[in-house]
Write a structure and sequence with these properties.
This protein is mostly beta strands. The chain has a domain of 34 residues. It starts with a helix and ends with a strand. One of its GO terms (cellular component) is cytosol. This is 6-phosphogluconolactonase. Keywords: Carbohydrate metabolism, Glucose metabolism.
């Protein structure tokens, strides 16, 4: 006969086991519902996209190489854009015929499935959707123009509805955080053009004043908005400057507050700055420079918008593109001449970069996009 003590112990054991199993099920369920992070790398010479899955520890796992159907010749670069709902990735093809290649993003695996191709107005150095995912903005460096293409419900790009001449060498063409304005850098004319944007019709109208002039021969290239919407940061290709601006959302006005550099200490030679990104938490900014093959880090004062340089680290050869994951914990940079990608851990206190590991990509990688799925 089993004693009361033994019966109690057995019951307690069964209860403990049941509790443990319940906790395990909840944990597994929570993990199953967690967002997964994927990185997409545009490769110009191989006409494809390298897809990677990012682990919690910063490890990248290759998932897929997605080719561009109907594209035979390589272009000078492969700009990418992801729709705000994370359903579609669009790649700009810079060889004739100029077109945008749309892929559906599998929300579980991150893999890409070709949907269709649509026409672009020229060889576009930069593409981006508006904040509502209704149109595609694009900028042509060689064609000195910007354009607007409607996006179909399936994410395929339709024929352009507006093609607007600009100054020399349009390079980036991005919407404001509230989707009311769109701004275009003109690298060869040292200016930023400002347009009002009507999201319901997709139409652009020049602002007054339309052009914001920048230092001569500075070469404004890429820019990013601070997540709080109060500041803009711009990298200048020709002199290596990184400039900070106050952003006045009501009228879309820029007011320069600081100018620093992406060039590492002791630099001599010809600057060739490339890309700029800010962590999603708004605390750190990074810039790439191709002459020195470096990444420079800055701490952001979220009250004033001003930058304090943290330092520079070596990176991939000719780092035309990089990006930061949605958690603000990792940065991935690609090198056009190294056919590779290096992942760095971002120190949450200082913003300093620590190299984790390098990975092969396609040929001539130049663009990186991160996305959380689903």
């Amino acid at each position: 006969m089993t004693s009361p003590i033994h019966r109690f112990a057995a019951g307690l054991s069964r209860a403990a086991i049941a509790t443990a199993l319940t906790l395990l099920a909840l944990t597994l369920g929570a993990r199953a519902g967690m967002a997964e992070t994927f990185a997409y790398v545009g490769n110009a010479d191989s006409n494809d996209i390298s897809v990677f899955k990012l682990a919690e520890n910063g490890e990248m796992t290759p998932v897929q190489t997605a080719a561009f159907p109907g594209v035979d010749k390589p272009g000078s670069s492969t700009p990418l854009a992801i729709t705000p709902d994370h359903r579609v990735l669009i790649a700009g093809v810079r060889s004739q015929p100029f077109q945008a290649v749309s892929f559906a993003i599998d929300p579980k695996t991150g893999q890409l499935s070709h949907i269709g191709n649509g026409p672009l107005a020229d060889s576009m150095a930069n593409i981006a959707t508006d904040r509502g995912g209704k149109v595609l903005f694009s900028a042509s460096y060689g064609g000195n123009k910007v354009a607007v293409n409607p996006l179909g419900a399936n994410g395929v790009v339709a024929a352009p509805t507006q093609v607007i001449p600009t100054g020399l060498n349009a390079h980036a063409f991005l919407p404001s955080p509230d989707n009311r304005f769109v701004f275009a850098t003109n690298l060869g004319s040292d200016q930023v053009l400002s347009f009002s944007f009507e999201p319901t019709t997709g139409a652009l109208t020049p602002n007054d004043p339309q052009a914001y002039k920048l230092p001569e021969k500075s070469g404004p290239r890429h820019f990013v908005f601070h997540p709080n919407g109060k500041f803009v940061y711009m990298i200048h290709e020709l002199n290596g400057d990184v400039a900070a601006f106050n952003y006045e959302a009501k009228g879309g006005a820029w007011d320069e507050i600081q100018r620093t550099t992406a060039l590492p200490e002791g630099f001599t030679g010809k600057p060739w700055a490339a890309d700029i990104h800010i962590t999603p938490d708004g605390r750190f900014l990074y810039a790439s420079e191709r002459t020195t093959n470096t990444l420079t880090a800055y701490k952001v004062d979220t009250s004033s918008g001003k930058l304090t340089t943290i330092g520079s680290v070596p990176t991939e050869k000719q780092p035309r593109g990089f990006n930061i994951d949605p958690s603000s914990r990792y940065l991935a940079a690609v090198g056009e001449l190294s056919d590779g990608m290096t992942v760095y851990a971002i120190d949450p206190s200082s913003g300093a970069l620590t190299k984790l590991k390098s990975y092969p990509t396609g040929k001539k990688p130049n663009w990186v996009e991160f996305v959380n799925l689903p």
